[in-house]
Structures are given as C-alpha cells and as structure tokens.
Amino acid sequence: MVDAEWQIIYEKLQKIHDIGAQIVLSKLPIGDLATQWFADRGIFCAGRVPDEDIKRVSKSTGAVLQTTVNKLSTDVLGTCGKFNEKQIGAERYNLFEDCPNTKSATIVLRGGAEQFIKEAERSLNDAIMIVRRCFKTNKVVAGGGATEIELSCHMKEKATEIEGKEQLVVNMFAKSLEVIPKTIADNAGLDSLDIINKLRHRHGKGDTENKFLGVDINHGIGNTYESFVWEPAVVKINALKAATEAACTILSIDETVRNPKSEQEEQQKRVKKSMPRR
Predict the structure, then answer these.
(1) ∠185-186-190 over CA atoms, to 5°?
(2) What is the pLDDT of residues 186-204, one digit of tens each?
(3) Residue 190 — φ and ψ, nearest 5°?
(4) Which domains, from first to last, does the chain contain?
(5) What is the pTM of this model?
(6) What are phi and psi of 39, to 5 degrees?
C-alpha cells in the first residue's frame, strides 16, 4: 500500500517535470520527499506561498494557477528573464526579474524600529495612491497650500459684495482655508505667520504668476506648480466638500443631551486625584 502511494506521488512529480517547469510555487506545504525530488532535477520549489504573492507572480510571468497535475501542458507555464534567491537583512527573498507581463514592482522597506517602517509604509502608500489618482483623473492643481490661499483671496473679495451676516460666514470660511498652508509651514519649521502674510500679499495682486505660489520648504514660498508639487483636483474637491458638510452638520446641532449624574461622578474622581496623599 505504501509503495502504491509513493508511486502516485512520483507520477505527479514526473508530470510537472515533463512539461519543463523549473520553478514550482504552491499555496500548500511541499513535503521533504517532493522537495528533494525537485532538487535532484534542478527544480526550485517553495510551499506556503501567500495567496496575494502567488497571484501577483502569476500575472507578471503569465503562468496559470493549477489545482491538479492532470492534463498539464506548456501553455500554463510562465516565464521570467532571471530568478534568484537573495538575502536582504535577516530575510530571504525569491526575486523574479524581467517578467514579460510585469506591471508592478516590489519595494522592500527596512528600518531600525517597527514604527519607522510602518510610518514609511503609510507615507509611501499615500504617495503612490496620489499618483494613481492623478493618472485616473488627468486634472491636477498646485499643492503646498497655493490652491487654498487663492480660494481664500477670491472668497474675501466676494464677501465684500454680500450684505448682512452672511458676509461674516464667507470671511470665516475663507480664513479657515488658510489653515492648510499654515500647517504645512509649521511642519516644515518655518514662520507660519510670515509665510501666510507673504502669500496673502502675492495672491492679492491677482496676477497669473502669483496664483501658483505656495509653501516652499527650501525658500519659504515658491511656485509649487513649476516645482511639481501637485495634487489631484478630485481629491481637493472632495476634501473641501467633506469639510464643508462636517461644519454644516456641527452647526445644525441645536441641543445636546447632558447627564448631570455622570458629570458629577467625573468631577468627584478629579477631586480625589488632585488631593494630596497622606
């Protein structure tokens, strides 16, 4: 019985070898017998490959995922220009290079601490998604707070034509837009008050040359459009819509429900914590 089972295994392995496969990847574990059999014939094999990775390799190389070894043909094989196993840091990676259908690349992030790697991953993902959105929408606007300052100047100018309390609303909305360039300047270690004043002055002139001026971390202010600091127009529009809707929702709240008993308990806890211990 054992010999018959081994014969079945050898027949399946032989079918893989007969079609000329040189690299075998499997979602399931590959036993020692199959690993040694493949190694003796110069075939690389790897088991427990994540589903996402194996699908990505399949798309890049043109290979077709198989659920059985019966009726295998060369049509299901994929190709790559170069394959090697390389150790990067403490991990070993299988690298498929020069794949005919590749439309992606693998980026390996390394760092001294896990939080640095996670932060780099988030920043990289944000940058890639922004570029992806730019390709889809084909419309961009100047970044670095240039768009917000330009909108703010136009709204302040428009507010002078409005009578009544609505003028205050428009002015405050225009002022709130200046938070974006102010925050960028603060994060860059610049004097945000000086930067905002310069941007107001230059954008207030209404010249075409000044409407693209935004926060430049190297020179204070600069033409962000010429510096390729762009943002997808659809992202900017959605951000303004979401912020406006959130503000309207908050302003529409005319009453809040309070729980005096809960507030009293919280106040008693604070008093106990503030009392000196004996």
Answers:
(1) 60
(2) 988 888 899 999 998 888 8
(3) -100, 165
(4) 2-97 (3.50.7.10), 140-251 (1.10.560.10)
(5) 0.57
(6) -65, -40
